[in-house]
């Protein structure tokens, strides 16, 4: 019988990390999606015994203080051109993941399923890693992945886990102990986007351009310093690619302006306090010359643990250039991204096409900026202008 009133994170602060769901010994918590597609824990009162383990495990209820100075910081890119070419930035995660697989480890990260929904999966073969490459700007479905990771760790397997800062915090809280065979990679997260918004966007693209085969949120088709959202649609026996800038694409505009973010992102508890062993991020300084081919993609890396520092020091597959640790975080990295959130409850009374047209408008100003950027790219001036602005 439940004699204790369970108080989990509120709807405004819950990140959906699944730590409480995963830790419950009585399976008394379900993760249920709201109209935005965000999953929240729901307690089954008939199963709950009031042990409070879920409260104790929640990383949001008792967050730690800020930690903004890593042990080591540097920029890097994979030496293997094949990795660099297919990665959104410098290919660092893929390079590390390949080494884990070569050492018979397990790699866990976000991938598209057959319907282009984003879910966390496990990989044990090199050829599976391509599923994890590239950014995915929508909240990933975790399901029972924390339990799977724990099973692998107890078997003595080396595990590389990749996720948002709140997902890594949730995993660490769920495990309740430090595992020497676990390496967690998080990234500088803008916000977590609503799965329902992504579903509406996929339908919008399909109506305009045809059946979708693939989506790349940060394509380097027009260079690393002008990342574009790329969509491949079915065309005859093959595919046809379309490219959109972040200023003119309705989904990216909504994402960057915070209107489709999870409510907890407006006051993120983990933007300034990373629980991962290392944090990765883009590095878009157009004037940077420290690496051999900066235009091919650059990754910022912050190392938080001595164990990870030692591990990376033995990796010869990366080209690197040191940064001052206190300068790893740039000004925009630490802003909470607040926006007027889209009310997805209205979908019950409005047609999807009308809803998307009303809530995913791109202002004329943004379209003009996008047009100007495309013009600079085609004239070969975009990188020069960006370098001048940075100065």
Automatic annotation (TrEMBL):
What UniProt keywords apply to this chain's record, in alphabetical order? Iron, Iron-sulfur, Metal-binding
* PANTHER family assigned to the protein according to its UniProt record, in alphabetical order: POLYFERREDOXIN PROTEIN FWDF, PTHR43193
- SUPFAM superfamilies associated with the record: 4Fe-4S ferredoxins
Q: Name one GO molecular function term.
A: iron-sulfur cluster binding
Tell me the protein's name. Answer: 4Fe-4S dicluster domain-containing protein
Q: Where is the 4Fe-4S ferredoxin-type domain?
A: 4-34, 39-66
**What's one Pfam family the UniProt record gives for this protein?**
Fer4_7
Q: Which domain of life is it from?
A: Bacteria
- Coiled-coil boundaries: none
Q: Which organism is it from?
A: Bacteroides oleiciplenus
